[in-house]
Amino acid sequence: MSIEIKVPPVGESITEVVLSSWKKANGDYVEMDEIIAELESDKATFELTAEKAGILKISAKEGDTLEIGATVCSIEEGSAPAAPAAPVAEKTSPAAIEVKAATYAAGAPSPAAAKILAEKGLDISAGTGVGGRITKEDALKAQPTAAPKVAAPVKAAVPAGSRGERREKMSSLRKTVAKRLVAVKNETAMLTTFNEVDMQPIMDIRAKYKDKFKEKHGVGLGFMSFFTKAVCEALKEFPAVNARIEGEEMVFNEFADISIAVSAPKGLVVPVIRNADTLSLAQIEQAVMELAIKARENKLAIDEMTGGTFTITNGGVFGSMMSTPIINAPQSAILGMHNIVERPVAIGGQVVIRPIMYVALSYDHRIIDGRESVGFLVRVKQLIEDPARMLLEI
Known about the structure:
Largest sheet: 7 strands, mixed
CATH topology of the largest domain: Chloramphenicol Acetyltransferase
Order of helices and strands: EEEEEEEEHHHHEHHEEEEEEHEEEEHH
Distance between the termini: 69 Å
Number of helices: 9
Strand content: 25-35%
Number of strands: 19
Shape: elongated
Number of domains: 3
Helix content: 25-40%
């Protein structure tokens, strides 16, 4: 008896998926719950598992677009194949040798020579005896004829600076990202404002408390939790930055679900930290770590990547000094963090070297005015440069 494995429902808005890769081959024996294939939607990658143990019969090819409920493969009853027996070298039996010897003896060799040639598995046409008869000495000296040497094929010379090219089909995830990015550029009045942040106060706190923080909470104390906390505080003062446009209405969110851009094996994904405005630094760090691990393992669920109200992206981990991040629709703003570089700055009339990060806020000018965008970014800067205000909520 066999069962059909079909494309499972993977989200309310998803009607089709692409079979990105098979993890097992047609005819393989699979265990129950073993991963047999990967399916890719326009939002994430999902693993397809065997619903029973048996022999896999593939009915869809890699790259096929399949509707939800479509048959991907079937699994037939069967057991794991037995391990193959070790090969046994064949030996020439004494009887066979005698037959060969008799055959040779009927011709030109002497009986002794015929037996020796039969044992060696050789056949020579002439010897040194009278009339070309093959003697025992001829048989003892006989060697297998070496196979003629075949000249190695000459490789065609490849010119320096080869101008080859490679084509690769865009994944569903990449196609959807491309469409959304173009839509954001075409359908929003996107602007970007910049500022710089002195990271020394945050770095001092991390240096002083990171070991105790790790010991107590089991996670490291990173920059993302401070920026998330600062963003949540600034969103309370500038609610338009946390809003979105729906038709002819502006929808203001009274909570902060912060999307965090994370690099995954198949591209950038943006999981969401729910109710980040109610979380402590430790809870934010734990959420960031859990989401990052899921992203690297392609285990993020659809509901973990939808519904954010504001996005933070950190190009600094790749060495970016400055960028203009693109809004994550339908949100209205995104904060871009960048790398930290020691730069000369004026403090109290003196030029000093400080670790400086440039930050950027891209926003939809249809709903967020210049005063609000600049004020929001300045507030984030103030909270990062004086974290006591953030922790005390003043």
